Amino acid sequence: MSATLIPLAPTREPSLDALITLVASDMNGVNAVILDRMQSKVALIPELAGHLIAGGGKRMRPMLTLAAASLLGYPGTRHYKLAAAVEFIHTATLLHDDVVDGSGLRRGKRTANLIWGNPASVLVGDFLFSRAFELMVEDGSLKVLRILSHASAVIAEGEVEQLTAQRQVATGEDQYLEIISAKTAALFAAACRVSPVVAEAGEEAEHALECYGRNLGIAFQLSDDVIDYASDAETMGKGVGDDFRDGKMTLPVILAYARGSEADRAFWRDAIGGNRISDDDLKHAIRLLRDTEALADTIERARQYGRRAIDALAMFPASKSKSALTEAAEFAVARAY
Amino acid sequence: MSATLIPLAPTREPSLDALITLVASDMNGVNAVILDRMQSKVALIPELAGHLIAGGGKRMRPMLTLAAASLLGYPGTRHYKLAAAVEFIHTATLLHDDVVDGSGLRRGKRTANLIWGNPASVLVGDFLFSRAFELMVEDGSLKVLRILSHASAVIAEGEVEQLTAQRQVATGEDQYLEIISAKTAALFAAACRVSPVVAEAGEEAEHALECYGRNLGIAFQLSDDVIDYASDAETMGKGVGDDFRDGKMTLPVILAYARGSEADRAFWRDAIGGNRISDDDLKHAIRLLRDTEALADTIERARQYGRRAIDALAMFPASKSKSALTEAAEFAVARAY
Q1: pLDDT tens digit sequence for A110-138
Q2: Domain covering B17-334: architecture
Q3: Residue A170: helix, strand or coil by DSSP?
Q4: Is A106 helix (H, G, I), strand (E, B) or coil?
Q5: Could you give the ipTM of this predicted complex?
Q6: For testing the chain B interface, which of A160, A194, A246 should be mutated: the one with the most B CBs within 10 Å?
Q7: Residues of chain B found within 8 Å of residue A40, distances taken between Cβ atoms
Q8: Residue A130: its chain B contacts at CB < 8 A?
Q9: C-beta separation of A294 from A230 below 8 A
Q10: Domain map of chain B by residue range?
């Protein structure tokens, strides 16, 4: 017999592991629907859609639908189709976003528009969007259809508003929050809300989970905004400085611009206007973002939204599902460090 | 008292006048929905959508929805929202089509993508598409939702297939008919079918009107194909030779290629491949289309589909509505002369 050293539990960084484990089995069901329903006799459709759908995304939104159902103890499988519909809507918006932004890299891979061209990306996006509605119609809940058709209109509205605000240095924090509430958080909210609808868990549970999703979505978007200035293409699977080169007024830039000296503000006007897109300019931008604490304060804002997401779950008793959703909200913020 | 000469009734060309008159009053209701529901707090959305929606389109599809309801004696107004939804879907596909084709002119006006750019056209198209589904959800018929979500997926599939066939001189007549059945005729068919659904007119009426719409749509598309080689930008409000320069294998070209001499086929391979896009090339193409009777035979094919559309109405008793729908099918063909 020998003495063994039992290590102390390490202080663990928040991760999505608990969420992934929680929904792993259900996710197989969702993946089966996704693979089945992205098929078409037109070969280019599954080819292009598969590039993105099989391309290493987290499936964050379907995971939320599944975890919300698990939180409510929903025993059925109706939400598989709806989670797939949510992922199709998300994939359609990614395809169109990459066309709109002229992006060449997503999740470390070449974008569909770069490989197959903008026309194919636009049209396959339209196909996936239509297919999402077909899935919802098959499920047959008008309430779910209302939630997701409204979310889709709100997303498109937010995307157009973002386009309008692009290269506009005068964009304020409130307007920006409105934009990301629409373009990002609306689908997170809808993904979480469809489960209490099919589980018939009542209005209060619907509102609580919608509130969780909305705030989680904002937290994710704000930490994404930070990551775009704080990482590199290799580690994040996304071109660093994309937002900078696209002239996007994200929260870090809004804060740095508001807090900057006259010289700094002149730099931002130039940069957001599209006249400073070199790597040196990007480095200078990151320096300004750090000096004005714009990155740290954006993370702090994200943390507030993460907390609101967690608080929205207060009405639900402790469970593995609740822990996983709580940790997901912590992860949404912690990933930007 | 003086003798007056009473002229003989002139042999009248078929027109859409009877249809327009038939639905004029209902169309005011549809237009009110369209104008109301294309609004958004994001000003660019109604601005861009209005350019196309108010831009002199015939509103062919909503007219069909209204005329079909009139044929069935439907006394309600539910179909106003659905006709508006159909027009929104159509407008969304036009916006995306112009991006896909890089078009600069539609209905004699500059296209939205030329004025506001491709990104705005893509995103406003997405908005209108989502809004269409919101309108259908408000109406609340799952059957209508099934018809139109399926039609939308079929349209997108057809558009992708057309993209795949572009610049492919090997495209055959059957494949082409499949493409236009999807990209054009599916929405005509759906526009006609929603009315018997809300009128609860029964499966037989649904199938008859769907059949009418589908065949009418094909007739319209084939005559459009002829017009693209037979008219000029001034009279048709569309750039002549667009299909030619885009390398689209439409039926006239498919027939001319099949019937051509070796030299002619070499010309078509070059032209469809994108290496002959001058005005002289277009003139030569039109000469080949005439010499091989490809234009005349495309019109003849269109006439067959027009007849099938008219025959589909056989089950309905004679009425002003039936006459108007019949004349619309005659017009679809006659306009290509």
Answers
A1: 899 999 999 999 999 999 999 999 999 99
A2: Orthogonal Bundle (1.10)
A3: coil
A4: strand
A5: 0.92
A6: A160
A7: 157, 160
A8: 149, 152-153, 155-156
A9: no
A10: 17-334
